[in-house]
User: What shape does this take?
Amino acid sequence: MIHYHPDNNMLLEYASGSLSWAQSLAVSAHIHFCPQCAAQMKMLNNVGGNLLSASAPVASVEREDSAIFGDLMQRIEARENEEHEEPAVPAKAVRERTSRDPAFAAVPPVVKKLLAQNPVLKWRRLSKGLKEARLKTGQNELEVSFHRIAPGSKVAEHDHRGKEITLVLYGSFSDGEGVYSTGDFLVREPGQVHRPTATQDQECLCLSVVEAPVALTGLLGRMMNPFLSLKPQ
Amino acid sequence: MAVNYINRGSAATVQASEKTRDDEWSNLLVRVGRERDRASFEQLFSHFAPLIRGFQFSRGGQSSAPEAADELIQEVMFRVWTKAPTFNPGKASASTWVFTIMRNCRIDALRRNSRQPVTDESLSVEDIWDDSQDEQPLVFLQQSRNQSAIAQGLQSLPPEQSHVIEKAYVEGKSHSEISEELGLPLGTVKSRVRLALKKLQSTLVR
Ligand SMILES: [Zn+2]
Assistant: This one.
């Protein structure tokens, strides 16, 4: 049962296309787990459809629509001829290092695609019981990474440099404010201190997206990790 | 020329005819998908091209250049043709489906123009804005009712709420961009959006 969702504001930005790429990725993965947000998306797309059909039609200025349509049909024909002539190139076999890992077995399709682009995950130990693997997404303003918390581990208390989104992909964890399990979507504002603990008998895998201006100030913990500012225990 | 039924007095009548017409566009789309029927496709093109152009012109700035709008029309309608076999009228109306394709084209265009190069290994816009996730199609009638319920809901929104909704969808602005532009606190923009959605939600058939 999912208890934590992206709010309506974030869903609307996702539906209208103004939410950042990486945050949209996390929302998309959440929707895969969450029928409630999938239903909400249906409504939000509906709003877009209504606004489109209610928009004031504008006749062509530069070229006649019939000329544009002609070009379009040519493009479509050219494309269809290509498809007939060239046999489809077999898709490059994806090395799935993570395929036997139970934590990755049931991740949403968009996360599978992300894994296909990052066939080798480089796990780094951030603190006792917490590992991180950064992902390439073709975007720099936001860090996208996987986090794994070993069963029963308590992560060092930390706060966040930028707004952080965490989506639980496998297992569950808790902090002072609640228990989060598969599919739960959390938003932490910068400065919110928390101390996650994984469930006793199972490790926890999360996808996280952080607004990540790298600032190397202060504590040793911050130097080793721009994403978490670890407080010495 | 403009059939802008939002905030119009005779809204109910216009809306009723819009609804039947939307069903008509859905039928055409189904035909394009199943039979690759070019005549149906041309009808869809004649209907949607001016709407897409109108939508795009409302954005202002560079995107209101006629060439940019024509390019968008061609790209959207190209994808409409290609994806038509996957169109399911129980999941979305024709205009909603075309809207999502247009949104994706805009996101693609924004990415191409951004400083960060789109590398081959990047996810595609369809990977993230994945409409196949919606696995629970409604019966066609219910889907069609919801569509007109929302049309009606949009008309009854207070102007300050419909204004932010239009800015978000038509102009493609984020909440913080809207707050900057209108000189309103971010919290105000967010609460207007939330109130508007709550109202629209209440119109839906369950
Ligand atoms: Zn949800």
